[in-house]
Design brief:
- This protein is an all-alpha fold.
- Among the domains are: 139 residues, Transferase(Phosphotransferase), domain 1; 79 residues.
- It has 16 helices and three strands.
- A three-stranded antiparallel sheet has the order 1-2-3.
- About 12% of the residues have low confidence.
């Protein structure tokens, strides 16, 4: 890196001087000429700025023109153009001073270089050393090689005014892949020769330099391949087993056992109560208690037509015998000898539900 930079190099790098900075440089050169440090007013190729903030003249200096005219021409070369941004616009009074010194106005010219420096001093800055250091740093930044990134490619494509859909239809690559490319996401971009073809088509459709785009994107693709290979590697060789502490099981909860036991007891008690409360059918002894089983003559002397006869088998002839009619005296005699009917027995009463032995055992 050079230790000094000329004003011409600043202009070539696109660095503009503000009107106050330009006037301060010309005032300092006029004072150097007045002290005898330089032989005349140098041109922009000879005037150099140092990192320490000094303004020096290195090179040949011509003296073929009057100092006032050369100083006015140097200031006119250092001032920004008429279409400069607002911070760089030149005041009208400074323009009139330069025009008077150059003789373009029909006014009396400056009689000496000192009178010209006095006229422009009110437009000059106070700290020339700080101004010179700042200009030198701007030149260093402008001339420092900058590494281009994928963001520069994206900005360059946007500057062309073309959309990703337009480029996609021209190069045959989907707009989603092109968008991922411009943002540096290359996981879905092909890493083979086809991917290089896509990249060349994108640069041509965008109007960008193919070699410049390839110099930015290809290293990114190679880095992506290396990362995928590192992820695919599996550690080989014996591996140390890390023992895992045994997990102590939590003690079982007892409450659900008590709940199950209580539920079973309740169901059993309910079954016993339902069984004892359900009415059972009476036995034969209970059903026939109080009835007399003696056979009377009335039961024997039934009418013949009401007596059921068993069916006569075929081919068997039976002889029907008619019983002889008994006198009424015999019937009365038999009725006199009939024993008296026993009084009906009272069915034994069932014990109370709450007095039953099984219920008392369950309750206890």
């Amino acid at each position: 890196m050079a230790t000094r930079v000329s004003l011409a190099e600043l202009a070539a790098a696109g660095i503009l001087l503000r009107p106050a900075e330009a006037a301060a440089v010309v005032v300092d050169l006029c004072r150097q000429l007045d002290r005898g440090a330089i032989r005349g007013i140098p041109s922009t190729h000879v005037i150099r700025l140092t990192p320490d903030g000094d303004v020096v003249a290195e090179g040949p200096i011509t003296t073929d023109r009057p100092p006032v005219a050369k100083a006015a021409q140097l200031l006119n070369d250092l001032l920004p153009p008429f279409n400069a941004p607002p911070p760089y616009r030149v005041p009208g009074g400074l323009r009139l001073i330069v025009a008077r010194a150059l003789g373009t106005l029909d006014v009396p010219p400056f009689e000496s270089l000192g009178e010209f420096c006095t006229a422009i001093s009110r437009f000059a800055g106070d700290d020339l050393a700080t101004t010179a250091r700042n200009l030198y740093r701007l030149w260093e930044i402008a001339n420092t090689p900058r590494v281009l990134t994928i963001s520069d490619v994206r900005r360059a494509r946007r500057a062309t005014g073309l959309s990703l859909e337009d480029i996609s239809s021209a190069c045959g690559v989907s707009a989603s892949l092109l968008r991922e490319l411009e943002w540096g996401y290359l996981k879905n971009w092909r890493k083979d020769a086809m991917g290089r073809t896509w990249l060349s088509g994108y640069a041509k459709a965008s109007g960008l330099d193919e070699q410049l785009v390839a110099s930015i994107v290809v290293p990114m693709l190679e880095e992506e391949i290396r990362e995928q290979d590192e992820v695919a590697l599996v550690a080989s060789g014996p591996q140390a087993l890390v023992p895992v502490a045994p997990v102590t099981p939590a003690p079982p909860r007892r409450w659900w056992i008590l709940w199950a036991a209580a539920s079973a007891a309740s169901i059993a008690l309910l079954a016993v109560v339902v069984t004892m409360a359900w009415p059972r059918p009476p036995t034969f002894a209970e059903a026939t208690a109080g009835r007399s089983l003696a056979v009377t003559s009335d039961d024997v002397a039934l009418p013949i037509d009401r007596v059921q006869k068993p069916p006569t088998p075929l081919g068997v002839h039976t002889v029907q015998t008619v019983p002889a009619a008994k006198p009424h005296v015999a019937k009365a005699h038999s009725a006199a000898k009939r024993p008296a009917a026993a009084p009906p027995r009272k069915p034994p009463s069932k014990p109370s539900f709450f007095k039953r032995e099984l219920l008392r055992i369950v309750i206890k």
